[in-house]
From TrEMBL:
This is DUF2938 domain-containing protein. The keyword Transmembrane applies. The chain crosses the membrane at residues 6-30, 51-74, 80-102, 138-155. Keywords: Membrane, Transmembrane, Transmembrane helix.
């Protein structure tokens, strides 16, 4: 497996994904703020949460990059299109499994059943994260495909 590539290019791909997400937020295409969502797991302050969440996101990106690198190694092939397919699989799991389960464990996120007495500061993402905007699934798919393409182009299959 390409260990050096994984270490460096996982960060590059995660930075590309994060930059694309921030660009989409600034363009008004989505309200999904992954660093805020992740960081508010450990702190209430939104400014601190974004900083902490950014580093949590980098770590998660490295973990996913390890999975991509292992897949490329198993296939004995690393290409942009395999990376794109893995990105689609990645976003499919994130939008249909991971994000919808998050309210069950996130201390500051409301659930779909939260009532008027809820003190949660974050709304639940819902299926496909559509609670953060109807274009969020498309934005998420595009940025995860970018992530996969970057890894597919930069990692060696070894």
């Amino acid at each position: 497996m390409d260990w050096a590539g994984w270490g460096l290019f996982g960060l590059v791909a995660t930075a590309a994904l994060t930059a694309a997400l921030i660009t989409a937020q600034l363009a008004g295409l989505t309200r999904l703020d992954l660093p805020l969502v992740l960081g508010t797991v450990v702190t209430e302050d939104p400014d601190r949460a974004r900083v902490v969440g950014f580093f949590m996101h980098l770590c998660a990106g490295q973990g996913f990059a390890l999975g991509y690198a292992a897949t490329f190694a198993l296939l004995h092939r690393a290409t942009w299109w395999i990376g794109a397919l893995l990105g689609m699989l990645h976003v499919g799991i994130a939008l249909t499994v991971l994000l919808p389960l998050l309210p069950g464990v996130h201390p500051r996120m409301a659930s779909q059943r939260a009532g008027l007495t809820s003190t949660a500061v974050l709304e639940p993402p819902g299926l496909f994260a559509v609670n953060y905007g109807v274009q969020t699934p498309t934005v998420a798919a595009v940025i995860h495909v970018i992530y996969g393409i970057v890894l597919g182009l930069l990692l060696q299959a070894d």
